[in-house]
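Fold sample X.
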Amino acid sequence: MHSIGNSLAPCSIKASHAPTRSIRPLLFAALLVLAPCAFAQSIQNPPIQQQMTPAQFKAAGLDKLNAEQLANLNAWLNGTIQAEASKAAVTAKKQVEDDNRGFLNFGSTEPVVGKIVGEFRGFGRGRSYTLENGHVWQQMDDASLAGVRLSNPQVKIIPSLIGNVWYMQVGSYNTRAKVLRVK
């Protein structure tokens, strides 16, 4: 998991600082998603002969296995369960990262590619842009793109190399606006 900093206290917004929100809900969500998977990996399932009734065990033909064969079957079943739990943990981690892209360097730093919902009328400080994936980004700088009117334009939001700063580019225009994810 990525390091989030020394403090779990809420951050306040300033010119280039993180949005006003506590990172505790993000950490809590990540723990809720990942904890069951980690717990599932840490325990061994009881042997198959304890999970089935004697009638089920016999009906499956497992009563014909010797002790070594039964041990191998149980080891394989436990390995499969642990492998599936690991896959679920990776999937859950990716989901948490994707859902939180743009918030406090928590989550993925891959570019966000999508479309603005509705009409785009150029850049302007303080404007909010809602993407089709539900993200809402607010412009934080004075970049402008005057005279532009586009319907549902393609956008690319790219993180800076340093800090939690993101830049939005609309369509094929070269102008980029500094944006902050607010939802």
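Fold sample Y, listed below.
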Amino acid sequence: MLRYINYGWHGPCFGMGTETLYFMKGSYKMKANLTSSLVAALMMGVFAGGAQAAASYCLPNGTNTDGMTLSDVKFEGANATDCYGILTGNDAQLFETGNVGDLNLLTWGTWTGRITSDDGVSATESYLGYDFTLSYTIVTDAGGSTPESGNWFVTIDPGPAAGETLYFDFAVALKGANDGLGYWYFDEAAVTETTSDGTYTFKLATNRNGGFQDLSHLSLYVRDGSTDDDTTDDDVVPEPGVLFLMGAGLLGLGIARRRKSA
């Protein structure tokens, strides 16, 4: 099947079998032979992509390029230490057989385990000698310009003794019904009761009409908070763009010196 798509102004229709596409923008034309399934996936990226910025951290400004803020997720009334997003995909796919996956690639260090609550249903996992039970409840449903918000709860068994404080590092992941994944990091979260709670506002995913989507699941990543395992303070790893600029600057200095010596 032969098809011309002027992707600046018109949307495609999809059929079956193998298709030859010509992507046109002005006088420029690109040819591609693709199966119908790949055509659909490609065109979803062409027409729906572009609005979301590259994933980034919220520090040092408290917000990132996608509008995520430290106050979007709270634990016992306190804002997150840092946040990162927006990502595509599913964080559940990043955690299999004890592997916390891509979260370990962030500047927040390595993690011990993960608990996931789907649609608010309680889920329990055992790590560090404790049973962690996670759930959440919706307070405000998503609709139009109103994002979903609610409360999340974590029960730790055995809980702290009277007058005792347990310290954990937490990373909360919010994932949208169709897309949109973000992480919020809490450094040395103080746990003084068996059940602790927090709040969330989910504004990472929107539908075609621009309305906010529902939360699909909430995940909690845990590790011992009594040791310093993060690099968010003085030894932050530069992002790729920063590394590129640093490399370009050093290269320019090297060229300038060589010209001067010549």
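Sample Y note: The mean pLDDT is 75.
Also: Helices lie at 36-48, 240-261.
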